[in-house]
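step: validate -> pass
step: tokenize input -> pass
step: predict -> running
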Amino acid sequence: MKLSDLLKTIQPVRIIGSTDVEITGINIDSRLIEAGHLFMAMRGTQTDGHAYIPASIGKGAVAVLCEELPEKPEAGIAYIQVKDSEDAVGKVATAFYGDPTSKMELVGVTGTNGKTTIATLLYNMFRYFGYKAGLISTVCNYIDERPVPTEHTTPDPITLNRLLGEMADSGCKYVFMEVSSHSIAQKRISGLKFAGGIFTNLTRDHLDYHKTVENYLKAKKAFFDGLPKTAFAITNADDKNGKVMVQNCRAVVKTYSTQTMADYKARIMECHFEGMFLEIEGREVGVQFTGRFNAS
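step: predict -> pass
step: emit ->
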């Protein structure tokens, strides 16, 4: 793919060298760079990718995306300076892997607790009804029935887009994805097109990274702020932060509850060790798990 085509989704601050060069791969890890690759330097919490620009060129990188240009750019290498490499990496990865989320319905699930349960239930339910579906979760990723091991709740932008690209190529029409607060704050989901988002709840967590509950909340809310008008946003009316999440949200907002008035209301009719009987919008549903949090 031509470098010039990869750059159509971003707005570079400055370009040095020719963009009429073929890119055979993209990476943010200099150790994985091969001949013909584009190396994208990101400032991480542990290391700064800018320090590995010379090493990536030594391994065959023909182009470098970075926030800070080297003092002495090497001849024959294309340098793309951007304001925010975290944001740019996701958009470039989306372009490189053929904009996979434009070919499927991607639904993101975010919140402190319940993300894995909801995403997995949706994935299993859609497959039960005969649809090809994908799952991106903490436990395991699935391309329809094929498991793909996972290392993070939400993978890095390149791994994520490569995985979504495989799902699109396999014919997956629906994909359910856990969206962590880290991935939102670090813009790992930049460039993805979401058909909808679901909010579970918010409790004190990940304060080692976000520092304050307010920052944690803002990270979650940023996901809903980014949803387009064509998307939906489903939020938990029983959580005090449920309404906060969808303030200023452009998507179509719906609420759910097990305790109060909402667009989608559930009531626990019976609860046993073996499971529960729920009434959801006038329909009785038997489930093999127990507890109000699972009903929610």
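step: describe -> The mean pLDDT is 93.
step: cleanup -> pass
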